[in-house]
Here is the input.
Amino acid sequence: MADIVTKLKKSIGESALYLEPDNEDLGAYTNDWTKKFSGYTPLVLRPRTVSEVSKMVSLCNDLGVHLVPQGGNTGVVGGSTPRSGEVILSLSRLNNLGDYDPASATIVVEAGTVLTSVQEFSANKGMEFPIDLGARGQCQIGGMLATNAGGNRVLRYGMMREQVRGLEIVLADGTILSNLNRLRKDNSGIDLKQIFVGSEGILGVITRAVLQLSPAPEARRTALFAIKDRDMLPSILAAIRESLPGLSSLEVILQDVIELVIEKVECPDFPLPRHYPAYIIVEEETESGDVGHSRFIQRLEGLFESGLIADAVVAESVSQSERLWHFREATGEAIVLAGHTHKFDVTVPQGKIPIFLEEMEELAGILPGCRPLLFGHLGDGNIHVNFVQTSSIDDKSFLAAGQELSKSVYKILGMHQGSVSAEHGIGMLKREYLPYSKTLEEINLMRNLKATLDPNGILNPGVMLLDQNKY
Ligand SMILES: Cc1cc2nc3c(=O)[nH]c(=O)nc-3n(C[C@H](O)[C@H](O)[C@H](O)COP(=O)(O)OP(=O)(O)OC[C@H]3O[C@@H](n4cnc5c(N)ncnc54)[C@H](O)[C@@H]3O)c2cc1C
Here is the structure.
């Protein structure tokens, strides 16, 4: 390690580009948001320019030093923290954004830019960056691209993959692969940037991106529905899609989760009776003012007449809408406060959601002392499955059951042709379950790509892929 420090000082200068391991700030780099993943690092590299990233990565490659690219450290699958003494490459200082081109509605953003900065910049231009998620104040564009992050409006705008026009990557040997074009249409050969989106830092380090902005909608309207029959969720989904042409979010929260949120987190009064088995939040983009509001109401009335919705409340203002969204946004915090949890972020074909919910509840019945809490992005078939520890089981037994539980959940998903990771990626957490969503041929191709782009295996070793003989 002394070797790399000396060489870095010589080639980049002494200007505090790294932190020594005894620096008290190091915990922010070595522990992730979930507090489940942490590890030792001897060194944190903090480049300020793309050229510094390139020099650092190239030097690590020459010396065989393993690196963990790190953004805001809000990833929840253990891909952003060191496992066995890797050096951390923090992109936080690479945080310039700008160069707005109104004609194409695109901006150039450095990887370390935090999502809220992009959202604020876009709003100042009268535009919007449509990806939004709970970690917005901390997650960075590079990390969001590396995990192909989604969020609440995927239904209308897609994931990070859909927002990126151009990308710049530093490869493992330090080569800067730069294609910062602003083109929506570019069929000149293989779209290489998409290989790096969702690659979780194992193929290259994302340094800059050209992002597509969207026109800000005139207004967003929110309503909360009570559902009396969970089996009707696919029909409800179809009816809502048909009725609301500007549908931008469609979230489902089962009754137990609402109860937990009310119990654990400070909340406004829940505006509907609490005995229904499920609740849905819908958001539609509409015209502004009374016209938009009454059209939204008219369309909801049509839905009511279908008999699929038992009860509903419509937000009359932005603050009322925020109060409704609170019951969805506070789910993460409430579950953290509830205690140890086995968490699964999965996708199920929408038509299979009712049976999948039942199957998850049955699984919880097999593990004593386990409370199933289910919610998610209904429109995308993305269900967040949480098995929370209750007081009737001790920590050790509950935690020990995690692996068996994972196998059962992913086996069921495999049967439904779902995905073991909807949004969060594979990281360290889900590596052994990748074959439930990908064929061995696909996994081998991923491995070959990794070997081609990073022959010395210095970038995020161990993340996403297990060794060949482990599948
Ligand atoms: C409260 C909360 C809510 C969340 N909600 C959502 C949600 O709705 N939808 C969703 O998709 N995710 C969600 N997440 C997960 C997380 O925020 C996203 O995965 C986010 O995109 C990670 O960004 P980051 O900058 O924190 O990346 P990190 O956590 O730092 O890194 C994540 C992965 O990307 C790699 N990486 C980071 N930066 C780079 C780079 N520049 N180049 C190459 N690789 C890199 C890391 O090595 C790691 O493998 C949520 C997380 C929290 C804590």
Remarks:
- The CA atoms of residues 24 and 170 lie 29 Å apart.
- The first strand starts at residue 18 and ends at 19.
